[in-house]
Amino acid sequence: MTAMLIDGKAHAGALRARVAAVVAGLREAHDLMPGLAVVLVGEDPASEVYVRSKGRQTREAGMASFEHRLPGSASQDEVLALVEALNQDPDVHGILVQLPLPLQIRADLVINAIAPEKDVDGFHISNVGRLGTGQRAMVPCTPLGCLMLLRAHHGMLEGMDAVVVGRSNIVGKPMAHLLLGENCTVTIAHSRSRDLRAICKRADILIAAVGRPAMIEGDWIKPGATVIDVGINRVPAPELGADKTRLVGDVDFGSVLPVAGAITPVPGGVGPMTIACLLANTVTAACRALALPEPDGLGL
Ligand code: NDP
Question: Of 15, 224, 275, 290, which sits 20 to 30 A from 57 (CA to CA)?
Answer without folding.
Answer: 290
